[in-house]
UniProtKB/TrEMBL annotation:
Residues 136-187, 390-442 form the PAC domain. The modification 4-aspartylphosphate is found at D755. NCBIfam families: sensory_box (TIGR00229). It comes from Flectobacillus roseus. CDD domains: HATPase_EvgS-ArcB-TorS-like (cd16922), HisKA (cd00082), PAS (cd00130), REC_hyHK_CKI1_RcsC-like (cd17546). Residues 706-823 form the Response regulatory domain. This is histidine kinase. Residues 460-681 form the Histidine kinase domain.
Length: 972
């Protein structure tokens, strides 16, 4: 029973008591009145009294019960007088506050209250009394007897008697536990709200009826509210939503989503919403449940615009990157440092047939790499570790077991601390290309085989073609001796020139084939360069005959003595170039200039050869083509039979020896070919004669010494025989090498003409046998006869010890020249006609005054005439020319340039005699020509070419003049 009920009961009891007293009084009065009048009523009265007594007894009992009740309740029940003094207190006070009832009764209630609460408490109850408030509730702290504080929650009721306050009844309960829990709760609440207020997220908490109970400044700032957070507390969000939604870019969608979230009451985080001003907010919805009971929810809003934009940029760039990669047919794979796959892009997955999920976490090396290629990847890994990128080809195993050939471009993946954390490989599918490559290589092999077969065929055919061709040419020559009619001579000319052309064509083709097959070897041996040049010059002079074309050779004075290199190749190069110059130059000059360009190393020099002609020239566009195969340029107005291979072969031969070639040309004026070649110098004396002369004495002892012809082809045998018969020579013909070797044991010969390809024993074997056998013929000149003009055959022939080479088909005079050449050696006779082409013996001494001829531009004869041996006078003139006159020549060029022909003429006239004074007769003639042309009808280009050429020549001659001056000074 609660105190109120007790109070009610007590009040009822009091009322009953009052009623009883009233009833007793009435009864007494009535009894007195009735006592006198009605004895019966006494008994009734007595009964009534008995009944009343019974009632009173009953009432007494209930009062005891109430008393017991008051004493036994856990709350302190007390009474105080209207002025605040204790009049009654139940025993519970001792239990609660440690005081006994007697210690309390009579004390003022404020004595127990904590001083700081006393005043407010007194005021509170004063107010209660003043306003006659029937009942109040209040909480305050009081002291326990032992001094500690007890919180009391008490109900006080006013007891009125006749409208007057009689006393105050209080029921006080110990609420200390509840108070401390409340305190904890309160401080927790403060902490929480402080935390929320200061959070760097916008927070809004609504209760279950959607009223705002908490909101922080950050939220107001984030959403752009102007109001202070406290002013928002209590707002009904449901009704405020129609206004709030306008802060967002899609208001209706926003509102409906909010309503859905609230209705579903499920946690949703990181939802993105866009504000009306274009910002991106991230939102969480957190429903709050207490004991499974929904009590509201919390919203968290954060502005993630910057982050979102960055992410978006990254995403877009990655999307773009992926798009590009996918479109580029490139497969990307990322692995860590242990080759574990950390990312595989779509295209790569398609390439290898795996899904990305199947690849992630797998070891790329183990999964894709055929074992034999592991070292490649290890090398690549090491390279990545030091930050290197590279590209390489690798076969990788697809899921279906097939091989995918890839070109991988690999690069390290470097983290923000600069540490290599893995690598990325961009794979390009090469399978198709590889297959193509294999097919191509097969096709190439087939083509190469075919080419080889073709070359072999050509080589073989050469023999087959050359042999009958040889006979055709030979027979044609013989026919000339049979007194043909004029018409027959004409036919024979055509026959001969066609056969000659065919012959050169086949030779060129074979040479080219050899060069392309890399079968040309450069043989280094000592040779006499000056002698070689003289021979070449002579050959062309003979060829040119009476045509108004001079072949001049000018050699730098630094060039003398022996050089080490391949003279055969040089000879062929010069013949090709000068041959062309001769073909394309009607009249004028072919100037061959050789000079030392530079010293490459000790005893090694780079020589420059210039062959300048005054022929028809080549147009600039055609000039670019002349070194290409089969580019025979259609020269206007010039009928030229050629293969178009000559210069291509020449270029190859020069490059093969480490040199270079180029050409310059002016149409109508002439062409200059310039090539360089490196040579070693040698101080040895060279003997280029084919056989040592010491052995020749033996040859004279043989009376029957004659010519041995070793040739297997009957027609050729017949051709040579008829020629030798015609020249009354003695000869023996055999048809293979074996028979030749037999012959050399039986007879002494003067010379052997030896075919190379023969049955039983070929020409090489026979030569080796002859050279290695002690017979009188051991050192005999052996001239190789072969239908193959291939360079290596010449080289091989020389290597086995043959002395010379006569390519078939040869003209009678070639055979004759060969005979003359070796006759001189064997008979030690002189034949003036061939003196110049007999290989010369040269030494390392510089050219003396007397030997200086074509290769030295100085005309010594003239100088002798002029100075008659007065060396001092001559030296003086040379000095004056070099110091004072030579610089004046430079003025010729600007005069031509300015087209100042009168002045040009004057200067040419003035300088002309000075050239003669130093023996430059040739240049003098050129200057005379310049003078003449400057006077007659000056032509700019013509004069320019002439002056340029003259100055160039003079420039080249300058060191020669200086040497000469030096020599003259030494002689004094
Ligand atoms: P071919 O054997 O046909 O002469 P080359 O390779 O020797 O072939 O020469 C190619 C072409 O270059 C010739 O056909 C000719 O038109 C041109 N050519 C070469 N040398 C000269 C030169 N000195 N003057 C003019 N044209 C030349």
């Amino acid at each position: 029973m609660n105190p109120n009920e007790i109070e009610l009961l007590k009040t009822e009891l009091e009322r009953e008591r009052a009623a009883r007293i009233q009833a007793e009084t009435i009864l007494d009065e009535k009894a007195m009145e009735l006592f006198e009048s009605n004895q019966n009523l006494i008994r009734l009265n007595q009964n009534l009294e008995a009944q009343i007594n019974e009632k009173v007894a009953e009432l007494g009992k209930s009062e005891i019960r109430y008393k017991q009740l008051i004493e036994s309740v856990q709350d302190i029940i007390y009474k105080i007088s209207p002025d605040g003094y204790f009049t009654f207190v139940n025993p519970t006070i001792e239990q609660r506050l440690g005081y006994q009832e007697c210690e309390i009764i009579g004390r003022h209630f404020t004595e127990l209250v904590l001083p700081e609460y006393r005043e407010s408490l007194v005021n509170f109850y004063y107010e209660m009394i003043a306003s006659k408030q029937e009942s109040t509730y209040n909480e305050f702290p009081v002291f326990h007897k032992d001094g500690h504080i007890i919180w009391i929650g008490q109900t006080v009721r006013l007891m009125l008697e006749n409208e007057e306050i009689n006393e105050l009844v209080a029921v006080a309960r110990d609420i200390t536990d509840r108070k401390s829990t409340e305190e904890i709760l309160k401080s927790t609440q403060i902490r929480l709200s402080t935390l929320i207020s200061n959070m760097q997220s916008g927070i809004l908490v609504e209760d279950e009826s959607r009223h705002i109970i908490l909101v922080n400044q950050f939220l107001c700032d984030t959403l752009g509210f102007n109001s202070a957070p406290e002013s928002l507390v209590g707002i009904d969000c449901e009704s405020a939503l129609h206004e709030l939604k306008n802060y967002f870019s899609e208001p209706e969608e926003f509102a409906s989503r909010v309503n859905t979230l609230v209705a579903e009451q499920k946690l949703v985080v990181n939802e993105k919403v866009r504000t009306a001003d274009g910002r991106i907010l991230e939102r969480d919805y957190i429903p709050i449940f207490i004991d499974d009971h929904y009590t509201g929810h919390l919203w968290r809003y954060n502005d993630v615009t910057e982050n979102f934009n960055t992410q978006e940029t990254i995403r877009k760039s990655e999307e773009k990157y992926r798009g590009i990669m996918n479109n580029m047919e490139l497969g990307l794979l990322e692995v860590d440092n242990d080759q574990t796959i950390i990312r595989a892009y779509d295209k790569f997955c398609k390439m290898v047939g795996y899904t990305e999920a199947e690849l992630l976490g797998k070891n790329a090396m183990e999964l894709f790499l055929p074992k034999e290629f592991i070292t490649i990847i290890e090398e690549q890994q090491n390279l990545r570790k030091i930050g290197g990128s590279s590209s390489y080809e690798l076969p990788i195993l697809k899921k279906d077991g097939e091989i995918l050939w890839t070109l991988i471009s690999g690069a390290p993946i470097i983290d923000e601390h600069g540490v290599t954390v893995g690598s990325i490989g961009i794979h390009y599918d090469l399978t198709e290309r590889k297959t193509l490559e294999q097919e191509l290589s097969l096709a190439k092999q087939i083509a190469e085989d075919a080419r080889q077969a073709e070359k072999q065929f050509l080589a073989n055919m050469s023999h087959e073609i050359r042999t009958p061709l040889n006979a055709i040419i030979g027979m044609a020559h013989l026919l000339f001796d049979t007194h043909p009619t004029n018409q027959q001579v004409e036919y024979l000319e055509i026959l001969r020139s066609s056969a000659d052309f065919l012959h050169s064509l086949i030779s060129d083709l074979l040479d080219m084939a050899k060069i392309e097959a890399g079968k040309i070897e450069v043989n280094h041996k000592e040779f006499d360069l000056v002698g070689l040049l003289k021979t070449v010059q002579k050959v062309f002079e003979i060829k040119i005959g009476n045509r108004p074309l001079d072949v001049n050779v000018m050699i730098d004075s630094k060039i003398h003595g022996a050089y080490v290199g391949d003279d055969l190749l040089l000879n062929q190069i010069l013949l090709n170039i000068i041959g062309n110059a001769e073909k394309f130059t009607e009249k004028g000059e072919i100037n061959i200039t050789v000079r030392q360009l530079k010293e490459i190393a000790k005893d090694e020099v780079l020589l420059e050869f210039q062959i300048a002609d005054t022929g028809i020239g080549i147009s600039p566009e055609k000039l670019e083509l002349i070194f290409q195969k089969f580019k025979q340029i259609n020269q206007q107005g010039h009928k030229h039979k050629g293969t178009g291979l000559g210069l291509a072969i020449t270029k190859e031969l020069i490059e093969l020896q480490g040199g270079e070639i180029h050409a310059t040309s002016v149409e109508g004026k002439g062409t200059t070919f310039i090539f360089s070649l490196p040579y070693k110098r040698s101080d040895n004396i060279i003997i280029t004669a084919p056989a040592p002369s010491s052995k020749l004495s033996e040859t004279k002892d043989f009376e029957n010494g004659h010519i041995l012809v070793v040739e297997d082809n009957l027609m050729n045998q017949k051709y040579i025989s008829s020629l030798l018969n015609k020249w009354n020579r003695q000869f023996t013909v055999v048809s293979d090498g074996r028979q030749a070797v037999e012959q050399i044991h039986k007879h002494k010969f003067d010379i052997i003409f030896m075919d190379l390809q023969m049955p039983h024993m070929d020409g090489y074997e026979a030569t080796i046998a002859i050279r290695s056998t002690q017979t009188p013929n051991q050192h005999i000149p052996i001239v190789a006869l072969t239908a193959s003009a291939m360079l290596d055959q010449k080289v091989k022939a020389m290597a086995v010890g043959m002395s010379d080479f006569l390519p078939k088909p040869f003209a009678p005079n070639q055979l004759f020249e060969m005979l003359q050449k070796y006759r001189k050696l064997s008979n030690e006779e002189t034949d003036d006609d061939f003196e110049e082409i007999i290989p010369v013996v040269s030494n390392t001494e510089p050219q003396t005054q007397q030997t200086a001829t074509v290769e030295n531009p100085i005309d010594y004869e003239r100088l002798d005439e002029m100075y008659e041996g007065d060396v001092e006078y001559q030296a003086d003139m040379f000095d004056t020319f070099l110091t004072d006159v030579y610089p004046e020549f430079k003025d010729l060029a600007p005069l031509v340039e300015q087209q100042n022909f009168p002045e040009l003429k004057k200067l040419a006239h003035k300088l002309k005699p000075t050239l003669g004074m130093v023996g430059l007769t040739q240049l003098e003639k050129q200057l005379v020509e310049v003078e003449r042309r400057a006077l007659d009808k000056p032509e700019y280009y013509d004069l320019k070419a002439r002056v340029d050429q003259l100055l160039k020549a003079l420039n080249q001659i300058h060191p020669i003049l200086e040497n000469e001056l030096q020599r003259l000074q030494n002689l004094q």
